[in-house]
Write a structure and sequence with these properties.
- The chain is of the alpha/beta class.
- Helices cover 33% and strands 22% of the residues.
- The protein is built from ten helices and 14 strands.
- An eight-stranded mixed β-sheet has the order 5-4-3-2-1-12-13-14, sandwiched between helices.
- Helix 3 runs parallel beside helix 10.
- The protein starts with 11 loop residues before the first helix and ends with a helix.
Length: 284
């Protein structure tokens, strides 16, 4: 993995002539991470090579910091990370939040009421703001298998007792695509709606996306959209692809992301990121 990325040093102008991008932005789940949450040696080597060539690697994930920090620590990642769908810019080296955007809970409640008026009761969870913000899970909400900690609650009113960066919604019968479509149609003027994975439809602060968080982090690194290549796998990566100069979808990506990608690479289990970076390095 990369060391702490930062603004270009005295020799970086020469280095970046050999590698076409100043910034390499990677999603985590389904993109950089394999199904066991590991990063292959081949992908680590490819990322190390592009940083040696003058680029910076930045993680851009839908996970909030508490669900991301252990992965970054295990990987020895010391740079900036964009977490919580762009809500948080996190300094992994210093374990410090640099920016944090919270969801207007009154607007979120109104949005939920509008969605439920259309499709019936929803199953709910929510991510609290902060470095140690808990993920609260309401009755019936289906949590994916894995080690990520959650706090079960019995009363959905408890979701609103502290600042949040997002609300998760599920429906007993609608697919993720159907639920996201309805939520966008009836509540898209109140909150942002995105789909980040199987069973993960999220309500966010209006106007927030991975692109907004990435642009803030890039400014701190002295990088620009024109010098950024981004990798992802889900519809929540669409704004990041629109912001970056080049968007690369994994073979396992959602069709909506593939439709707007500049390129489709191999899957996350087949070192898709390394395939692209190695080709770029070979042409440099």
């Amino acid at each position: 993995m990369s060391t702490t990325p930062g603004p270009a040093g005295p020799s970086a102008a020469t280095d970046t002539k050999t590698f076409p991008y100043r910034l390499v932005a990677t999603d985590l789940d389904g993109t950089l991470l394999r199904s066991d949450e590991s990063v292959s040696a081949r992908t680590r080597d490819a990322l190390a090579a592009v940083t040696e060539a003058g680029a910076a690697h930045i993680v851009v994930t839908g996970r909030a910091v508490p669900w991301t920090r252990h992965i970054l620590d295990d990987l020895g990642y010391r740079g900036l990370a964009v977490c919580g769908q762009g809500a948080q810019v996190y300094d992994a080296g210093e374990h410090r939040l640099l920016t944090s955007v919270t969801l207007d809970r009154q607007l979120a409640g109104l949005a939920l009421a509008k969605i439920e008026a259309e499709v019936g009761p929803l199953l709910l969870a929510a991510s609290r703001d902060g470095l140690d913000g808990e993920v609260l899970v309401g009755p019936g909400y289906r949590v994916q298998d894995g080690p990520l900690p959650v706090v079960p609650i019995r009363d959905a009113a408890d979701l609103w007792s502290a600042p949040l960066n997002k609300v998760y919604v599920q429906h007993p019968t609608l697919s993720d695509d159907e639920l996201a479509s309805v939520a966008t149609r009836v509540a898209g003027g109140l909150v942002g709606v995105t789909m980040a994975g199987a069973g993960i439809v999220e309500l966010l602060p209006l106007g927030l996306s991975k692109a907004t968080g990435l642009s803030l982090a890039a400014r701190r690194l002295g990088a620009k959209a024109a010098g950024t290549i981004a990798f992802g796998d889900m519809p929540n990566d669409i704004p990041m692809f629109a912001w970056a100069a080049r968007g690369v979808a994994m073979a396992n990506a959602h069709d909506d992301l593939k439709a707007v990608a500049d390129e489709v690479t191999a899957g996350n289990e087949e070192d898709g990121i390394a395939v692209v970076l190695e080709a770029l390095l070979a042409r440099a």
